[in-house]
Amino acid sequence: MNTSLDTWTVRAGRMLRVAVLATIGLFVVRLGYLQVIRGAEYLQRSEMQAIKQRAKIPSRGCMYDRNGKMIVRNDPAFIVTMTPNDVDTMTFPLLARLVGKDVPTLRMLYAQALPYRFQQIPILRDAPLDVVAAIEEHAAELPGIEIRTDVKRRYLLSAHASHVFGYRAMVDERDIASKGDYYTLNDYIGKTGLEAAYEPFLRGRKGVQFVAVNAAGQPIERFNNGRSDIEAIEGADLYLSIDALLQEVAEQQMGNDHGAIVVLDPRNGEVLALVSKPDYDLHPMETPKAGEYFAQLARDSTKPLFNRAMQTIYPPGSTWKMLVALAALHEGILDEQTTIHCPGSFTYGGRSFKCHGAHGTVDVRRAIQVSCNVFFYRLGQRIGIDNLYKYGTLFGFGQLTGIDIAGERPGLLPSRKWFERRGVTGNLLDGRMINLGIGQGELGVTPLQMAVYVSAIANGGTLYQPHVVRAIYNKETGRLEKVAYGSIKLPLNPRYMRIVQEGMYAVCNVPGGTATNVRVEGVAVCGKTGTAQNPHGKDHSWFICYAPAENPTIAMCVMVENAGFGATRAAPIARAILDAYFHPERYRPTPSGSATASVGEGDSPQLQ
Questions:
Q1: Which of 156, 80, 159, 158 is nearest to 125 (CA)?
Q2: 3-class secondary-structure state, position 409
Q3: For labelling alongside 444, which of 61, 123, 218, 249 has CA 20 to 30 A away?
Q4: Cβ atoms of residues 334 and 362 within 8 Å
Q5: What's residue 419's pLDDT?
Q6: Which helix (H) or strand (E) holds 22?
Q7: Cα separation, 542 vs 308, whole angstroms
Q8: How many Cα neighbours within 13 Å face the side chain of 38?
Q9: What is the 3-state secondary structure (H, E, C) of 238-303?
């Protein structure tokens, strides 16, 4: 029996040794498999656990004026960021002291950034050099805090042009939700003006930088010597139609008044100048106090953020009379010999509608020249609401012009149905046509629409899409590409257009015209004044014009709120702009500075 036990013990020992050897063998084989066969793969995985991706933010596209001079550029700046996943909140007292913020503010920023824990979130933009140096000095004590290079906008025009350029701001959650996955909380985005309208071009394309980090998440070296990085592509440059001199003169002439100026090239719809007053300085929007500055502008009772050139809706007053004349001529309601007697007033329904003079018997040219209200009271009634709506729509009223600046409003062009919905029919509507005949009543236009309208009169009947950007320079392809815009040839009789043009010529050049003070040496100007009634205060002052009379190259609308007669305030502004356009060599700077001396720096590919 002992012999059997000894035999079993020997066998068990052998089996145990075999099992141990088999287990060791399996470990050896597995180790060899992991190290030899899949060693490279696991080494790469191990390395990648210590590698982080950093977005490379491209430089934003610059802007150039119509002469190829840079007017918006980028200056270098620094930004202090936190990566929430790597941050030690115990370091906030030190960080607060270095960046000039209090600890509760840093904790609030940290809490807001937690949903984006692996992204670099800005805590101080445009950081001063002494702050940058201090952060770098204490880098080992501030895990998750880094300095990144950034850019800020620099505006080189002496004019503000704030409603043309627009401003940038940090993205918010709505931007991220609506603009796709391009943006993170570390990004700027265009909010208004050209910055918003051309954001996809200006922003460029992000790159990626791979960096090795230590246990604290701080970068220590570039991965693979940068060979794996993806380079960023700079944003495209915009070549604008803006004339720097005209922009400055227009802003200076408007002064502290409220209103708008739009200057166009009637041959193609290019915007030569666009002013909305009050405006604001764009530079503070590029500083760490941008939020405070914006809040201040938003609270300002004068509404400097509001673009009066394309968002205001005012009755056009007598500047509307050419449209009424064209409607009547085309519908056969009058011809160039038709006359109407003006005794100084017109009576309808027991109410007297005044004219600003007793003009006697006048035809359509003379009625435009002296701005006879009685003539157009009667004409408004004769053409009726349907024809008014038809020709108003033809010239683009009640619609967007399609300008390439964000935020345009369509205004109001009432139709018969519009009035019917409000219970205005029959004699009531007939009475409304009296006021609509002189550009008053339920009618709202923007200065931009009026500039497009007078441009179409100037060029003989072509409606061009107004635009500020002439061409885009693509940094990736190295090509300067012109931007195409739309135009519509209106079905208008050239002879009737000529009658209206002759009336506008008489306004500025024949004794008795309402704007004979708008004269520029060597240039025949055609124009029309307007004084729009304002139920909330003093009348608004309008003036629209173009020049030269033959082959016009400039057209504009000037609208000044609460400034009285068009000939008194708006027309002299237009005259100064025309003088600067036709005689730039005679332009003398005001004490506030010179547009020609401070247009910009740097040249770029020329637009032919």
A1: 80
A2: coil
A3: 249
A4: no
A5: 96
A6: helix 2-32
A7: 13
A8: 8
A9: EEECCCHHHHHHHHHHHCCCCEEEEEECCCCCEEEEEEEECCCCCHHHHCCCHHHHHHHHHHCCCC
| pTM for this prediction | 0.84
Cα separation, 36 vs 26, whole angstroms: 15
Neighbours of 58 (CB within 10 A): 19
CA distance 598 to 409: 33
Residue 147 φ then ψ, to 5°? -105, 130
Cα distance from N-terminal residue to C-terminal residue, the chain: 113
Nearest-Å Rg of the Cα atoms of the chain is 35
Percent of the chain with pLDDT over 70: 86
With a cut of 80, say whether residue 449 has pLDDT above it. yes
pLDDT at 245: 94
Map residue 178 onto helix, strand or coil.
helix
Contacts of 280 (CB under 8 A, 6+ apart): 160, 162, 297, 304, 305
| Residue 552: CA count within 13 A, CB half-sphere | 30
pLDDT for 181 beyond 80: no
DSSP 346-364: EEETTEEEE-SS--EEE-H
**In order of start, what are the domains of the chain with their CATH numbers?**
55-62+75-151+177-233 (3.90.1310.10), 244-286+307-586 (3.40.710.10)
Mean pLDDT check: name the lowest of 61-75, 76-90, 152-166: 76-90
Residues present in the chain in total: 608
> How far apart are alpha carbons 246 and 264 in whole angstroms?
11
Contact 281/304 with Cβ under 8 angstroms?
A: no
Contact 564, 257 (CB under 8 A): no
**For residue 85, pLDDT beyond 50:** yes
Helix (H) or strand (E) holding 408: none
* Token pair recorded at residue 4: 């059997």
Please give, one letter per residue, the 3-state secondary structure of 184-204: CCCCEEECCHHHHHCHHHHCC
Closest CA to 200 of 236, 152, 241: 236
**378-426 pLDDT per residue, tens:** 999 999 999 999 999 999 999 999 999 989 999 999 999 999 999 999 9
Contact 540, 317 (CB under 8 A): yes
Mean pLDDT of all residues belonging to the chain:
88
Cβ atoms 197, 190 nearer than 8 A: yes
For the stretch 482-539, pLDDT in tens is 999 999 999 999 999 999 999 999 999 999 999 999 989 999 999 999 998 876 778 8
- Three-state secondary structure string covering 44-98: HHHHHCCEEEEEECCCCCCEECCCCCEEEEEEEEEEEEECCCCCCHHHHHHHHHH
Residue 521, Cβ neighbours under 10 Å: how many? 8
pLDDT, residue 592, reads 46
